[in-house]
Amino acid sequence: MSGLMAALSLRGSGASVMVLDKGRSVGGRMATRRIGPGQADHGAQFLTVRNETFGAWAKQWLDQGWLFEWSRGWSDGSLRPSLEIGYPRFAAVGGMNALAKHLSGQAEQAGTHIHANVKLESVEQTADGWLARDENDVTYSAPAILLTPPVPQSLSLLSAGGVALTDANRTDLESIDYAPSLCGLFWVEGRVNLPEPGVLQTPTAPVSWIADNQRKGISPDAKLITAQVIPHMSREWWALPESETLALIQAEISPLFDPGTRIREAQLKRWRYALSSSTYSNPFMEAEGHSGLLLAGDGFGGPRLEGAAISGLSAGARLKELFGKS
Ligand SMILES: Cc1cc2nc3c(=O)[nH]c(=O)nc-3n(C[C@H](O)[C@H](O)[C@H](O)COP(=O)(O)OP(=O)(O)OC[C@H]3O[C@@H](n4cnc5c(N)ncnc54)[C@H](O)[C@@H]3O)c2cc1C
User: Fold this and answer.
1) Same domain, 190 and 294
2) H-helix or E-strand spanning residue 175
3) b/e for 197-224, b at 16 or more Cβ within 10 A?
4) Average pLDDT rounded to a whole number, residues 316-326
5) How far away, in angstroms, is 151 Cα from ligand 1 center?
6) Of all protein residues, whose CA lies closest to atom 31 belonging to ligand 1?
7) Are 134 and 28 within one domain?
8) How far is ligand 1, taken at its centre, from the CA of residue 233, in Å?
9) What does residue 170 show for φ and ψ, rounded to 5 degrees?
10) Residues 23 and 119 in one domain
């Protein structure tokens, strides 16, 4: 989200922009996975809007038919009427990754070069800018570079390239923290008893989020259930064998199954850096003493997709100031 928003904010600036992503397609934690004939969101589940600037973007995406309002709240299984009282939660038509695909399409139309499947291994400073090297030893150079992976991953890239940040920058970056998340995906045949709109959110339970992607409208041909483990239990279960973790998650969701409901396939996704739990005081960082090195992402702009977007837009605006040609 933050990298794509930065690219979009540079449209029309005259700067030549390239987005590199190690994933099979762009989107990062805006992730949707196919299982059998269905699909499931297994990273971000929805987005919320608090900031006016982001609200204007979200409105465009709604008007374009890329987003829909999924709900105004979630039930925790009690009789408390939580559905009517909240603010809107928007999901992407076709799965959250579809929004990333739309944004990358828009950026490409404006001349941005987008390359997936490029896993960077180091970022180094050169006499006239920055050089990124991927795992196949292919290099990419530019006068400026914006790093938007989770901060520990950006720090590894800089350290591999021998970039010595100032003590103050390093200390600030090292204090940006992320909680992990284990996410089970289950292809189910039969009925799963979830309250409207097909979601159960019980913030204190080991599996705090259970959502039916078929009822969400993104998996018409198969019932795929997303089950996310709360951060402290994700830490506790992190190193367990995959089958054991899936069995633990399954034990939490199976009381919702009708008799006869069966699991056809189960998959686990481990998000090491899922949710930023402490963020930097500015929406992005411009490294001291290293001209043209910027860092952004949800570790800066505030947690969630909205924070990532604001961070990317702010970093993009700064790059435009520094390197835009018109
Ligand atoms: C399980 C889960 C549930 C969530 N639920 C919600 C939710 O419901 N609502 C919400 O608003 N937010 C939610 N979030 C948080 C939200 O997904 C993130 O805040 C947001 O996606 C962060 O965007 P970003 O651009 O900062 O980072 P990312 O999405 O992590 O993007 C970083 C990109 O960098 C790429 N990258 C990393 N290292 C390299 C490398 N070496 N070379 C090349 N590319 C690299 C990655 O492939 C990735 O595409 C959730 C996250 C998770 C994991």
Assistant:
1) no
2) none
3) bbbbbbeebbbbbbbbbbbbebbeebbb
4) 87
5) 11
6) 28
7) yes
8) 20
9) -60, -45
10) yes
| Cβ neighbours around 60 below 10 Å, total | 11
The yes-or-no verdict on residue 259 having pLDDT over 80 is yes
Contact 161, 40 (CB under 8 A): no
68 lies in the same domain as 46: yes
Per-residue model confidence (pLDDT) at position 83: 53
Which ligand 1 atom is nearest residue 29's CA?
29
Backbone φ and ψ for 89, nearest 5 degrees, come out as -110, 120
- What percent of the chain has pLDDT above 90? 92
Percent residues over pLDDT 70 in the chain: 98
- The DSSP line for 50-109 is -SHHHHHHHHHHHHTTSEEEEES--B-SSS---SSSS--EEEETT-HHHHHHHHHHHHHH
Distance CA 218, CA 87 (A): 22
SS3 call for 110: coil
Of ligand 1's listed atoms, the one at least distance from the Cα of 28 is 49
**What distance in Å separates the CA atoms of residue 181 and residue 272, rounded to the nearest whole number?**
7
Task: Kindly give the distance from the C-alpha atom of residue 304 to the centroid of ligand 1, in angstroms, as a whole number.
Answer: 9
pLDDT tens for 73-98 read 999 887 555 555 689 999 999 999 99
Question: What confidence category does residue 316 fall into, taking pLDDT thresholds of 50, 70 and 90?
Answer: very high
